[in-house]
Design goal:
alpha+beta; Herpes Virus-1; metal-binding; cytoskeleton; FN3_dom; ubiquitin-protein transferase activity; Ig-like_fold
Length: 710
Amino acid sequence: KVAIKSIERELICPACKELFTHPLILPCQHNVCHKCVKEILFAFEDSFADGGSESSNQSSPRIKISSSSMDRIDRISRSGTKRNSLTPRSSLFPCPGCQRDIDLGERGINGLFRDFTLETIVERYRQAARAAIAIMCDFCKPPPQESTKSCMDCSASYCNECFKIHHPWGTVKAQHEYVGPTTNFRPKILMCPEHEMERVNMYCEICRRPVCHLCKLGGSHANHRVTTMSTAYKTLKEKLSKDIEYLISKDSQVKAHITHLDLLLKETECNSERAKEEASQCFEKLSCVLEEKKSEALRAIEASKNARLEKLQTQAEEYQGLLENHGLVGYAQEVLKETDPSYFVQTAKRLHARIQKATESLKTFKPAAETTFEDFVVDIAKQEEILGDLSFHANGLEVPQINEKRSRMYNKALISWECPGNTDSADIYALEYHKLNREEESATWQEIKVCSKSKVISDLDDDSSYVFRVRGFKGCICSPWSQEVILRTPPAPVFSFLFDDKCGYNSEHLLLNPRRTSVESRAGFPLLLGSERMQVGCYTTLDYIIGDTGIAKGKHFWAFHVEAYSYLVKVGVVSSNKIQKLFHNTHDVTSPRYEQDSGHDSGSEDAFFDSSQPFTLVTLGMKNFFIPTTPAAPKDPASRILPLPSRLGICLDCDKGKVAFYDANDMKCLYECDVDCSGIMYPAFALMGGAAVHLEEAVPAKYGEYRDDV
């Protein structure tokens, strides 16, 4: 037999820390008292209604229950309200066992099973703890007699005489099931909590809970795999028996582990005391340094004070002598009483010089010393910042690294980071950043506390570089700072637009997505049919599409992505004055270079081609970026071909009449030229063959945490 007192730990509710009372089985397979579940649910509901205010009751370790909530529970219980009214609006339950929010479903606590087996074990434990405390008969007249048996059908205890009276021979009650004296009465048949009139007769292998036939037919378990209750009973009992036998066979190994854990407990105590002593020594060293600096500062202030007081006191005494019958004036008045000229002149000459000096000092009065001690103000701003960052650096806490591929700078800054090995050992992260300014020697870091692994930052300056770094915290332990990453913002405010599906849009050759943020060139039958009359020296014009919003003034930036498989794409801007000319060009043009009767040579054709451009575009294709041919461009054709960036950007400055093309990953300018901005300017794109362009989506104000499987 198992010693019942040795399993007390398994019989304690994780919420109230007392023996289970009517325990319920949560979907996470933890047990909580029925009353505790109601208290936590009502407190969870009240925390939303009251704006998360704290309450005073300490019955739950995670959520404090207010006295008003307790009164509300008792009032509802006494009023005899239907069970459904006990289900709060919120179906989320913060499990005190696994510390996770569990969804209880639509029925809330009414959809949970009572763990009658656990109740029976708890009752046996109570009886073992009470030992000599007898269970009295529920029907005896005072004084009641000690009960000898309990009826499971009547849920009552009886002495021998009362049992015979209430269960007469030959009646239905005589067939009731009775056991030894107990206070734990459980129903003989387990009923379904969702269909209260149906008994459970199947076991859902997906949800791992008993269900009735209505649950399987049309309920939440309709598509789940179920088995009979007898099969589930046999299977689970065999598994549990084997697992228990295995654990019992490893009894010596378990004892060895316990001995090892006891040693670890003692070692932890010793190491913690040693760590406390080392930490105290470190702070004592800092205290000694601070005390020494404090003494030096106070001595310097005291010395300066004494010197200033001495100067001011001397000056005050000198001016005191200028008063009548005092000091210098009094002495001069006595000298004036001398009648002998020779003696008077002998003394008065030296005295007159002193009087003149005193007169001059009186006209230009200035204190002999300053009264303020501004030179002795201690600047501790940097030291405060350093001490604020003072914490434990643990080797076990991984150093997060900023992921530059996932991070991007657009209308806002999205900074994303990850830990090596996809571990998530930190509870919270500190993200710091500052604007990179070469003129400033030391910049002030701005800090943001983040619970996820990404953060959106707004209100950054355009055309500026920022430095970012991050580190993780777990309690009072923090990791070292990550490697600093420099990211640059776009050169101008971000311009938002969609592809225009009306103006000149060729639906036969181009395909727009429903959101009008992506366009794809379909090189199918229309292109082949259009090429049927081509023989030699012919080419087809591009299919054009523009943005649905124009720009009249100012400086603007937008970005996009060109698929790597794209054969030919042109991007740039077009003026409203030339849109009609752009879309009314013929779609099949014979090149005059090779037309037998054209009469043009190659030089005249190039001149005609350059002068007839109705817009400013650059050519992309086959994973390359082609710098247009201009007088300032390199002569070598190979030097005009650059690798195609994964993100391209265009910056249009209408005020200066310039358009620039950027690598939007690092905001590096690839090419810049003049453009005529006399009309309203529109973003323009042209595609031929298999190609696709995707507009850059704006960074939302709140960006969700990246999942590990992304």
